[in-house]
C-alpha cells in the first residue's frame, strides 16, 4: 500500500524535476520586476497611484464585471462585501463549513453569525438541494425576510465559496436566493479564471471577493478585490476602504467610520504583471490536471477531483480524494516525508473551537470530505 504512495511522490518529483516540491509557488519574471521598479521610481508606492487603477480595470475586464475595488487582502474584501450588502450585527450568514476561516471571520467582524451548511461531492461547495431542505426546516419568511426559527435571528445572506477554483452550482443557489430572499455574496478568493456555464465566477452574486495572496493563482504579495456590477455598491466599497474620507484637495473630513483597506500601488504593480499571465497560468494548470489524471489512474482507491459538467475550473489547487479505507494522515506523512508538500483541507469551521457552538445544518459530507481530501503540488508547469 505504502509502495504506491512512495512511487507517486517520485513521479511528482520527476514531473517538477525537484527533490522538494512545494505545494504552490508564485511565478515571476522580468515583467514583475519592470512594473515594480517603475512603481518605485515614480515614488507612488502607497495607497494612491496609477497601478491600482489599472489593476482594478484589468481585473474587472478579465472577469467581465463592471467594477473592481482593490484592497489589502481577500479577508478585507469579504468584510466589506458583506457590509455593503447590508449584513448587520446579529444577522446569520449561510456559508460552507468547508472553507478557509476568512469567510467566517469576515461575518464575525460585523457582529454577524456564521451559519454552516453542507457541501456537495460534485462541486466541493454549498449543495443547494441540501440547503433548500435545511431552510425549509429551520427557516420562516416574515415580511419578505428569512428568519431562523431556532434562534430568532434574521438570515441575511449566503456566501458560497468556489473550493480550490471549482465553481459551485450557481443556478441552484440563485434559485434559493430568490425563494428565500437571500443576498448572494461569492467568496471567489480561489476562483479567478473559473467559469460557470461560460460566465466568470464572482459575477453571479450581488458582490464577490477575490484574493491575491502569495499562494493564489495570481498574487499582489497580499491583496484582494471587491467585484460588482453595481456602481453604487462599488463607489461605497471604495469610500469605505479609503477611510470614508470625503474627496477634497486638502481637507480631512470622514463621514463614517471607514477602513484603511486600500491596496498599495506597489502591490498593484506586481498584480498588473501577474494578470497579464493569468491566461497562461490557467492553461498550465489545466494541463497539469491531465498529467495528474494519468498518474493517478494507476493508483488504487483514490481519484483526482475534476470539474463538474457546468464548470470550467482554474484548477488552482490540485485535489485528490481518498477512498474510505485510506487514512489521510498516513498518506500526508509519506508524501511530506518524501519532499512532496501536500496538505489536508482546512479543518471545517464547525470543528474549530472558535466556531463550534454556531448554527449549522447536518454536515456529513463536510466531515467525510475533511477526512479524504489532499491537495498536491499545483505550481503551474
Ligand atoms: C485566500 C482565501 C481568502 C482570503 O484571502 P486573504 O487574501 O488571505 O485574506 C478567503 N477565502 C478563501 C476561501 C481563501 O482561500
Automatic annotation (TrEMBL):
GO biological process, one term: polysaccharide biosynthetic process
Stored InterPro entries: DegT/StrS_aminotransferase, LegC-like, PyrdxlP-dep_Trfase, PyrdxlP-dep_Trfase_major, PyrdxlP-dep_Trfase_small
Alphabetized SUPFAM superfamilies for the sequence: PLP-dependent transferases
Superkingdom of this protein's organism: Bacteria
The keyword Transferase is assigned to this record: yes
Pfam families reported for this sequence: DegT_DnrJ_EryC1
Active site per database record: 216
GO molecular function: GDP-4-dehydro-6-deoxy-D-mannose-4-aminotransferase activity; pyridoxal phosphate binding
Organism from which the protein derives: Ureibacillus thermosphaericus
Source species taxonomy: Bacteria, Bacillati, Bacillota, Bacilli, Bacillales
Main enzyme class: transferase
Protein name: Perosamine synthetase
Gene3D superfamilies, sorted: Aspartate Aminotransferase, domain 1 (3.90.1150.10), Type I PLP-dependent aspartate aminotransferase-like (Major domain) (3.40.640.10)
Modified positions (N6-(pyridoxal phosphate)lysine) in chain numbering: 216
Similarity comment: Belongs to the DegT/DnrJ/EryC1 family.
Entry EC no(s): 2.6.1.102
PANTHER family tied to this protein: BLR5990 PROTEIN, TRANSAMINASE
